[in-house]
């Protein structure tokens, strides 16, 4: 597998959860679009959404063993709380982009703290579902250059 697309807690509720913040597209819509674009680029992609920190960590650990070249992750609420998921990302040494649908800097103060931004290749925030496309473009470029 070339790219692992990870989505954290409550993102399975996209489309109905606070559409003014997160848009009206469902996670299935986003994943279908990103999967099609990755396939068009000749890359394989696997998606996993989990409301559990442990489930996301297990996927990151597995990525270190299955040849994953890049991770796109929206850690959602774990962005601000999960040292364990951060440590998993560091342990794998797989390049990644952090994605957020909303502009976290226009929201509550606690959302401005990320345990991932300083170790990510880049951070995309505030462009809604299109942010995943930006992250995929970055992943494709990274994979081609490495």
UniProtKB/TrEMBL annotation:
Record: active site: 22 (proton acceptor), 100 (proton donor)
Tell me the GO BP annotations in alphabetical order: amino acid biosynthetic process; aromatic amino acid family biosynthetic process; chorismate biosynthetic process; quinate catabolic process
Catalytic activity reads: 3-dehydroquinate = 3-dehydroshikimate + H2O
One Gene Ontology term of the molecular function aspect? 3-dehydroquinate dehydratase activity
Amino-acid biosynthesis as a keyword of this entry, yes or no, is yes
EC annotation from Swiss-Prot or TrEMBL: 4.2.1.10
Enumerate the SUPFAM superfamilies for this protein. Answer: Type II 3-dehydroquinate dehydratase (SSF52304)
- Keyword GTP-binding tagged: no
Record: residues binding substrate: 74, 80, 87, 101-102, 111
Site feature (Transition state stabilizer) residues: 17
The protein's UniProt keywords, in alphabetical order, are:
Amino-acid biosynthesis, Aromatic amino acid biosynthesis, Lyase
Q: Which InterPro entries match?
A: DHquinase_II, DHquinase_II_CS, DHquinase_II_sf
Q: Hey, which pathway is this one from? A: Metabolic intermediate biosynthesis; chorismate biosynthesis; chorismate from D-erythrose 4-phosphate and phosphoenolpyruvate: step 3/7
Please state what class of enzyme this protein is: lyase
Q: How does it assemble?
A: Homododecamer.
**HAMAP family per record:** AroQ
Q: What does this protein do?
A: Catalyzes a trans-dehydration via an enolate intermediate.
Which family is this protein grouped under?
Belongs to the type-II 3-dehydroquinase family.
Q: NCBIfam families this protein is in?
A: aroQ, PRK05395.1-1, PRK05395.1-2, PRK05395.1-3, PRK05395.1-4
Q: Under what name is this protein listed?
A: 3-dehydroquinate dehydratase
The gene coding this protein: aroQ
